[in-house]
Design brief:
The complex is a heterodimer of chains A (about 625) and B (about 500). Chain A has about 625 residues and is mainly alpha-helical. Among the domains of chain A are: about 285-540, no CATH class; about 550-620. Chain A has helices spanning about 5-25, 30-55, 80-105, 110-130, 135-155, 160-190, 195-205, 210-225, 235-240, 245-255, 260-265, 265-270, 275-295, 300-320, 325-350, 365-370, 370-385, 390-405, 410-435, 450-465, 480-485, 500-525, 535-540, 545-570, 575-585, 590-620; strands at about 60-70, 75-80, 470-475, 475. In chain A, strands 1-2 form a two-stranded antiparallel ribbon. Chain A has a two-stranded antiparallel sheet with strand order 3-4. In chain A, helix 14 (about 300-320) packs antiparallel against helix 19 (about 410-435), helix 18 (about 390-405) crosses helix 22 and helix 19 (about 410-435) packs parallel to helix 22 (about 500-525). The longest helix of chain A has about 30 residues, at about 160-190. The radius of gyration of chain A is 27 Å and the shape is globular. Residues about 585-595 of chain A have low confidence and may be disordered. Chain B is mainly alpha-helical. Chain B has helices at about 5-10, 10-30, 35-60, 85-110, 115-135, 140-155, 165-195, 205-210, 220-235, 245-250, 255-280, 285-305, 310-330, 335-360, 375-380, 380-395, 400-415, 420-445, 460-475, 480-485, and strands at about 65, 80. The longest helix of chain B is centred in the middle third of the chain and has 32 residues, at about 165-195. The chains are: A mainly alpha (about 625), B mainly alpha (about 500). Chains A and B meet through strand 1, helix 5, helix 6, helix 24 and helix 25 of A and helix 7, helix 9, helix 10, helix 12 and helix 17 of B.
Chain lengths: ~625, ~500
C-alpha cells in the first residue's frame, strides 16, 4: 500500500500540468472540479495508510522511489511516519476543501483554469516538502512552495499592489532560504549525507554543541521566512493581496507551517542546541505578542487575520523552542482548521459584500449570511481559546509546556497569556464589527449568502475546529502518542500533574473570556469607539517596520546596486542606452572616438587587474 | 605513429577538412547553402563521434602522449595528448558546436553568399578550441586560443553594415589581443623560469617542480599570474569581464551562442590542463587567488545582472557569475575535474539554447534584445516561451534542472578544498540570482492578451532549443548517468 504513496504527489502534479497547459480549452468550471477531484483523491488515498499508523497496524517506513544524486545521499524517497502523515492529511484535506471553495470564489475570473493549475502545483510542492526523506528533497519542496506561493499571491498581477506583494514575499523568503541553504551545507559537511535517517541517528555523536547551534539557528532563519516570524514576517500581511482562498490555504493552513514542520522534523538537532531553543522560544513569544498588538488596530478584515496568523505561528515556534514539539505540531493542526475556516469565512463575507474589506463598512451581516455567521462563530471561539473548542486545547498545551520549564521561562509564559488576551480581544472585535450591530454598509451593497461550494467547506472546517481539540487533552494524550514514533529519538518532558494543568487551563480560559468581554462591551454598541490616536495610527501601519526596513536595508541596497551600475562597471544601464544612441548618431566618424575611450578604460581595468593579481601571486608564492 | 595518434587529432582533423570542403564548395558550386549545411552538421557530429572513439580508446587504456613527428621524439616534447580530459572535450565541443550551429542557422541564412565564411570560421574556431584542451604544450595552447579567438573576432563583426557589430568586433579584438599578449608573455616567463614549455613528458614543468627547489620564484610566479590573467579574460571572470556584455550585445544574436559557449568550455579546459595538470603543486599559491576571482565573479556578475534590461547583457553577466561557480571546481584540483566537466557538459547547452531563442525573438542579425521583447512569449510562441523558462531555471540552479546538480557538485568541490566562506558566498549569489532569472520567466508568462504577434521559429532553431532543453532537463533528473561518465574525464 505505502509503495503507491508517490501517487499522492503525482495526482496534483498532473492536475497542475493539465490545468496550466490545456486549461483554456477545459474552461470553467470543469478545470476547478478537476483540481478538486485530484486533490480529494489524494486525500482519500492517504487516509488508508494514515489509519494504519493510527491503529498501529502500519509502521513508519521509507519508501524508495528512484536514486537522484546518490553521492550526497539525496534519493527521491518518501518518509512515511506519523508527522508526515498528519501534514499530508492536513494539506490534502484542507487543500481539497479550498479547491471546492475556489470554484465558487473564482467564478468569472478570466484565468480560472490557471488559478487551479497553480493551486494544484502548490499542493504537489507542499507534499514533496512534507514527504521528503532527506534535506535535499525537502529543500526542493521548500523552493517549489515558495514559487507557487509567489505565483498565487501575484495572481492578479495587473493590480500593482498584488505584483509588488508577490515580489516582496519572494525576496523576503530568499533571505530565509539562504539560511536554510547554508545550514544544509554545514549538515552535509558534518554528516556527508542529506538523509534524515543517518543524520538523526548519528547527530549526538557527530555534532558538537557549537555546530548544532549554528545549524539550528540557520534552519530557524529559514523558518522565520516561511513561517513569518520576527524579523521576516513583513511579507505576510502584504500577501493578503492574493485571492482569499490562497490566503486560507497558503498563508494560514499549510505553507506558513512549513517552517514549524521543518523544525519539528529536525527536532533531534534542536535538542542538541539549548541556546537555539531559547532564541527560538523568545522570538516566537515576541512575534506572538507584537503581531497580536498590531492585529488589534487593523481595519481590513483580512489584515486582522494575517497578523493573527503571524501571532499564532509565534505560539507554534515558541512551542518548538521550549522543546514541546508535539504541542507545536498539535497547535499547527488545530490552527490549520480554524484559521482556514476564518479566512474562508472572511472570503465569503468579502464576496457577499462586493469586495469590501473594511470592517467599518460591515456590521449586521448575521441575518444576511447565516451559514457564514454560524461557522465564523465556531472559528472565533476556537481561536480565542474557549473550552471545548480545538484552540483551547492546543494553545493551552504550549503554555503549559512553557510554564513547566519554570524560572525565567515564566516570563515567556506570561507573554503567551498576554497574547492570548489580545487574541480574544481582536477576534471579538472582528466578529462584532462584521456580524453584529447595525449595518454600516456602503450604499448599494446588498450582502448575500455565498453558493454551496463555498459554504460546504466552511461547515466541514467548522466541525473539525470543534472536535479536533479533544484528540489531545491533558487527560488523554492520543495525539502525542500518535506522533511518538516521529519524535522517538528525543527525550520527553513529563506531562504536568493533572490538578496543576487544570488550574493553568482554567486561568487561560478566564483570561480569554475577559478579553472577549472587554472587546464585546467596547464594540457591540451603536456608536463605534473612535480609534484614531497615536497608538491606533502607528499600529495600523504595523509600527512602521516596513519603513524601517526600507530605510535600513532596501535603500542602501539600491544605492549599492546603483553604485555598481554607475561607477564600478562603467557601462551600466545608462552607459548602454547612451552608448547605443550615440553609436547610431556618430555612425560615421564618431566611431573611433567612442571606441577608444571605452576600450582604453577596459584595457586599463585589465592592466590593473593583472598587476594586482601578479602582486598577489608573488605575495602568496614567496616571490618577494 | 600508431592509429591512436591519428585518433588523438581526429577532432581537429575532421573540422579542418569540413571547413576546407565548405570553402571549396562555395567556390565551385556557388552560394547553395543547402550543400554546406549537411557538411557543417556532419563535421560537428563526426567530430563528436571521434570524441566517443577517443573516450573508448582511453577507457581501454589506449591514451597517452603523441609527438609532432617521429624524429622529434629525441627531444621528447609531446604536442598532443589523448586522455579522458581531451576526449571529453571532443564530445562536449562537438555536440555543443552542432547545437550552436543549428541555433546560428537563421543568421547563416540571412548573410547570403558570405554564409560559407561563417560556417568555415565556426568550424575552424572549434578546432582551435579543442586544441586548447588536447595539448600539453603551452605554445600549442596559445595557437589554439588564437585560432579560435581570431575566428570569433570576425564572427562578432559579421554584420559589417551594422556599426554596433563593428564596434563589438573591434572591442573584442583589441581587448582580446591584449589578453592574448599577456598570456603569451606568461608562457615566455614560465619557459624562462622552468626551461620547459610542456606540462607532461620528459623535462616537463611538472618534473621541474618535483625535481627543483625553487629559491627565487619571482619570474615563475609572474609567468603563472599572467597566464591566469589571459585565461580569466577568455572566460570573462571578474574583474576581466567588462568586454563580455558589450561584445555579446554588439555581436549578431545568431553568432553569440556559438562564441559564448565555445569559449567557456575551452577556457576552462585550458585552465584545468595548465593549472590542475601542470601547476598542481603550486595550488597553495594560485588557489586563494582563483577563489577571490571566483567570489568577485559571482558577486559582480549577479549584482550587475540584476539591473540589466537587455537579454544579451543579462546572459553575459550571468555568464560572469557562472564562471565564478565553475572556478570553484578548480580549487579542488584533480578531484574537481569531474564536477567541472559536468558543468561544462550542461551549462553551454543552456547558453546556446537561450541565444537561439533570443535570435528567434529579436532577429538573428539584431544587436539589441530588450527583455521586454520577451513579454508574452509564452503566448506568441508557446514552445519558445516554455523552453526559455527551462533555460532560466537551469541557469538559476533550480532543483531538477542540470544547473542545480552542476552547482551542488561545484559547491562540494570547493567545500572539500576547505573554502567554506566561498561556498557561503556562492549560495548567497545563487539565491539572489533567482531574482533576475525568474524576472525573465515572469516576463515571458505575462503581458496583455491582445499582443499576439505570433513568432514562428525556424526548424533549425527549434532543434537547437529542444536539444539544449533536453540536456538541461534530463541531466537534472537523472544526473548520475553523466556523473558516472565525467568521473573519468581526468587529465593525465
Amino acid at each position: 500500500m505505502t509503495d503507491l504513496l508517490w501517487i499522492l504527489i503525482a495526482l496534483p502534479l498532473t492536475g497542475a500540468f493539465i490545468n496550466i497547459v490545456f486549461g483554456k480549452r477545459i474552461g470553467e468550471p470543469l478545470a476547478g472540479w478537476l483540481g478538486f477531484v485530484l486533490v480529494g483523491s489524494a486525500w482519500a488515498i492517504a487516509v488508508v495508510p494514515t489509519l494504519g499508523l493510527l491503529t498501529g497496524s502500519g509502521t513508519p517506513e521509507t519508501i524508495y522511489l528512484f536514486s537522484w544524486i546518490p553521492v550526497v545521499g539525496a534519493d527521491a524517497a518518501i518518509l512515511w511516519d506519523p508527522l508526515s502523515a498528519l501534514l499530508t492529511m492536513i494539506v490534502t484535506g484542507v487543500g481539497a476543501l479550498i479547491h471546492l471553495y475556489s470554484i465558487g470564489y473564482m467564478h468569472g475570473d478570466e484565468r480560472f483554469a490557471r488559478f487551479f493549475g497553480y493551486l494544484n502545483l502548490f499542493i504537489a510542492s507542499m507534499l514533496i516538502l512534507v514527504l521528503a526523506s532527506n534535506y535535499a528533497v525537502m529543500f526542493i519542496g521548500w523552493e517549489l512552495v515558495g514559487l507557487s506561493s509567489y505565483l498565487l499571491i501575484s495572481f492578479w498581477f495587473k493590480k500593482p499592489s498584488a505584483a509588488a506583494a508577490g515580489k516582496k514575499a519572494f525576496i523576503v523568503n530568499r533571505i530565509g532560504d539562504w539560511g536554510f541553504l547554508v545550514a544544509l551545507m554545514i549538515i552535509f559537511a558534518s554528516f556527508g549525507t542529506f538523509d534524515f535517517g543517518v543524520i538523526f541517528t548519528t547527530a549526538p555523536v557527530v555534532l558538537t554543541t557549537g555546530a548544532a547551534t549554528a545549524i539550528t539557528l540557520l534552519l530557524f532563519l529559514g523558518a522565520t521566512g516561511k513561517s513569518a516570524q520576527i524579523p521576516l514576517y513583513i511579507w505576510l500581511p502584504d500577501a493578503m493581496e492574493g485571492p482569499t482562498p490562497v490566503s486560507a490555504l497558503i498563508h494560514a493552513a499549510t505553507m506558513v507551517t512549513a517552517g514549524v514542520f521543518m523544525m519539528a522534523r529536525s527536532a533531534v538537532l534542536f535538542e542538541l542546541a539549548p541556546i537555539s531553543g531559547v532564541t527560538i522560544a523568545v522570538i516566537g513569544g515576541a512575534t506572538a505578542l507584537l503581531a497580536a498588538v498590531i492585529a488589534v488596530t487593523q481595519m481590513d478584515i483580512k489584515k486582522v487575520l494575517a497578523y493573527s496568523t503571524i501571532s499564532q505561528l509565534g505560539y507554534m515556534v515558541m512551542g518548538v523552542g521550549v522543546g514541546a514539539y508535539s504541542a507545536g505540531v498539535f497547535h499547527l493542526s488545530t490552527h490549520a482548521f480554524f484559521k482556514a475556516l476564518l479566512f474562508l469565512g472572511a472570503g465569503s463575507v468579502i464576496h457577499g459584500m462586493a469586495d469590501e474589506q473594511d470592517m467599518r463598512k460591515m456590521g449586521g451581516l448575521r441575518k444576511a449570511m447565516p451559514v457564514t455567521f454560524v461557522t465564523m462563530t465556531v472559528g472565533w471561539l476556537a481561536i480565542s481559546g474557549i473550552f471545548p473548542f480545538s484552540g483551547f486545547w492546543s494553545k493551552d498545551e504550549i503554555l503549559a509546556a512553557t510554564f513547566q520549564r519554570g524560572g525565567p521561562w515564566l516570563i515567556l509564559w506570561a507573554v503567551g497569556i498576554l497574547a492570548a488576551l489580545l487574541t480574544a480581544f481582536y477576534m471579538t472585535r472582528l466578529y462584532v464589527l462584521t456580524f453584529l450591530g447595525k449595518p454600516r454598509w456602503a450604499e448599494g451593497t446588498e450582502p448575500h449568502e455565498s453558493p454551496w461550494t463555498m459554504t460546504l467547506p466552511l461547515a466541514v472546517l467548522a466541525v473539525a475546529a470543534v472536535i479536533f481539540g479533544v484528540f489531545n487533552t491533558p487527560a488523554r494524550l492520543a495525539f502525542e502518542h500518535f506522533l511518538e514514533p516521529s519524535f522517538a529519538l528525543i527525550s520527553h518532558a513529563e506531562p504536568l500533574d493533572l490538578p496543576l494543568a487544570a488550574v493553568l487551563a482554567l486561568f487561560a480560559l478566564v483570561v480569554a473570556i475577559g478579553g472577549i468581554a472587554w472587546s464585546w462591551f467596547r464594540y457591540n454598541r451603536d456608536e463605534l469607539p473612535v480609534e484614531e490616536g497615536g497608538f491606533w495610527q502607528r499600529g495600523l501601519n504595523g509600527f512602521a517596520v516596513d519603513d524601517l526596513y526600507g530605510r535600513v536595508i532596501v535603500e542602501p541596497g539600491k544605492k549599492v546596486c546603483e553604485w555598481f551600475a554607475d561607477s564600478v562597471d562603467p557601462k551600466g544601464i545608462d552607459g548602454v542606452s547612451h552608448g547605443i544612441a550615440q553609436g547610431v548618431r556618430t555612425a560615421g566618424d564618431g566611431l573611433k572616438t567612442l571606441q577608444s575611450g571605452q576600450v582604453r578604460s577596459y584595457a586599463g581595468g585589465i592592466a590593473i587587474g593583472a598587476v594586482v593579481l601578479i602582486l598577489a601571486v608573488l605575495a602568496l608564492g614567496g616571490g618577494f | 605513429m600508431g592509429n591512436a595518434s591519428y585518433l588523438a587529432v581526429a577532432f581537429e582533423g575532421i573540422l579542418l577538412i569540413g571547413a576546407l570542403v565548405v570553402l571549396l564548395v562555395a567556390v565551385v558550386a556557388g552560394r547553395s547553402r543547402a550543400v554546406w549545411a549537411p557538411i557543417a552538421g556532419a563535421s560537428f557530429l563526426l567530430a563528436a563521434l571521434a570524441g566517443v572513439l577517443q573516450w573508448i580508446e582511453v577507457e581501454n587504456g589506449g591514451g597517452g602522449m603523441f609527438f609532432s613527428a617521429q624524429n622529434l621524439q629525441v627531444i621528447k616534447s609531446p604536442m598532443v595528448v589523448l586522455d579522458g580530459f581531451s576526449a571529453m572535450a571532443s564530445i562536449v565541443l562537438g555536440l555543443v558546436g552542432f547545437t550552436a550551429m543549428l541555433g546560428s542557422w537563421d543568421l547563416v541564412a540571412k548573410v547570403g553568399k558570405r554564409s560559407a565564411e561563417f560556417v568555415a570560421l565556426s568550424l575552424l574556431a572549434f578546432a582551435g578550441l579543442h586544441m586548447m584542451a588536447a595539448t600539453p604544450n603551452l605554445v600549442v595552447i596559445f595557437i589554439g586560443l588564437e585560432t579560435a579567438s581570431i575566428s570569433f573576432y570576425v564572427l562578432a563583426g559579421f554584420i559589417r553594415a551594422d556599426v554596433k557589430s563593428d564596434e563589438s568586433a573591434l572591442k573584442y579584438f583589441l581587448l582580446g589581443s591584449l589578453a592574448s599578449a599577456l598570456f603569451l608573455y606568461g608562457i615566455a616567463l614560465t619557459f624562462a623560469a622552468t626551461g620547459s614549455l610542456t606540462i607532461y613528458g620528459v623535462n616537463s614543468i611538472r618534473d621541474f617542480f618535483s625535481e627543483t627547489v625553487v629559491s627565487d620564484p619571482g619570474i615563475l610566479l609572474v609567468g603563472m599570474a599572467l597566464m591566469l590573467v589571459g585565461l580569466m579574460f577568455k572566460i570573462s571572470a571578474a574583474p576581466f569581464h567588462q568586454w563580455a556584455p558589450d561584445v555579446y550585445q554588439g555581436a549578431p544574436s545568431g553568432a553569440v551562442g556559438l562564441m559564448a559557449a565555445g569559449v567557456k568550455i575551452a577556457g576552462f579546459a585550458a585552465l584545468g590542463r595548465i593549472f590542475v595538470g601542470g601547476f598542481i603543486s603550486q595550488i597553495d599559491t594560485w588557489g586563494p587567488i582563483v577563489a577571490v576571482i571566483a567570489a568577485l565573479s559571482m558577486v559582480i556578475g549577479t549584482t550587475m545582472a540584476l539591473v540589466q534590461t537587455d537579454m544579451k547583457r543579462l546572459v553575459a553577466y550571468s555568464g560572469v557569475a557562472h564562471s565564478g561557480y565553475l572556478l570553484l571546481t578548480l580549487l579542488a584540483g584533480v578531484e574537481g575535474m569531474s564536477a567541472m566537466w559536468f558543468y561544462l557538459a550542461t551549462y553551454p547547452f543552456m547558453i546556446v539554447g537561450t541565444f537561439a531563442i533570443i535570435s528567434t525573438v529579436s532577429g538573428p542579425t539584431s544587436t539589441s534584445s530588450p527583455i521586454e521583447a520577451m513579454r508574452g512569449l509564452s503566448r506568441r510562441s508557446p514552445e519558445m516561451g516554455w523552453l526559455l523558462a527551462i533555460f532560466m531555471f537551469g541557469m538559476s540552479g533550480m532543483p531538477f534542472f542540470a544547473g542545480f546538480v552542476g552547482k551542488i557538485l561545484a559547491f562540494i568541490a570547493a567545500g572539500d578544498a576547505g573554502y567554506i566562506w566561498l561556498v557561503v558566498v556562492a549560495t548567497l549569489t545563487t539565491v539572489i540570482g533567482f531574482a533576475f532569472y525568474l524576472r525573465v520567466v515572469a516576463t515571458v508568462f505575462s503581458g496583455e492578451d491582445d499582443d499576439t504577434t505570433m513568432i514562428d521559429p525556424t526548424l533549425s532553431s527549434r532543434f537547437a532549443v529542444v536539444i539544449g532543453a533536453t540536456v538541461t532537463v534530463v541531466f537534472g533528473i537523472v544526473p548520475w548517468i553523466l556523473i558516472d561518465v565525467v568521473r573519468d574525464a581526468l587529465p593525465l
